[in-house]
Design a protein that fits this description.
With 80 residues, the protein is mainly α. The protein is built from three helices and two strands. It has one domain. Strand 1 and strand 2 form a beta hairpin.
Length: 80
Amino acid sequence: MSIDFETGEPSPGELAAIEAEWPQIEADLAELDAEIREIYAADRGGPTELDWRRTRRSAAQVTRTATRATRPVAELRSAA
């Protein structure tokens, strides 16, 4: 990523790449949150059904967002 040192802002192409990656980033964060909840629950009697549901839902979300990627990020960055 290159930054315009006059404005300190990323280029429009880089912003487009970030925008395109954001659903995957959100899905990965949701999966990480579910894993943290599992670890926390293990110290307190084990995960509940809700914890397992969150884990399954977040794993499915990661898979869905990965398969929806339509344009490679490198292609978006080069469009700038």
